[in-house]
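User: structure tokens for this one?
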Amino acid sequence: MKYYVYALKSEDRNYIYVGLTNDVERRIMEHNKGYNKTTKPYRPFVLFYVEEFATRPLARIREKELKTSSGKRFLRSYLANL
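Assistant:
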């Protein structure tokens, strides 16, 4: 099984969410339908970043990195260059 670290951008607010999953499409749908208390107020979302990993522990390490202030700076820079 493959695991993915992903970043979503709120279409209406200045908010980036970083998460980990084994099914990116399902997770985006869950976020956009409001199933997650953390992200519900920031809907709708668009996916703008995905990394693939062979194991969940490796994906978790990267997820934690992207949730730091330097990780968020990286994602904002990545988003600005799209």
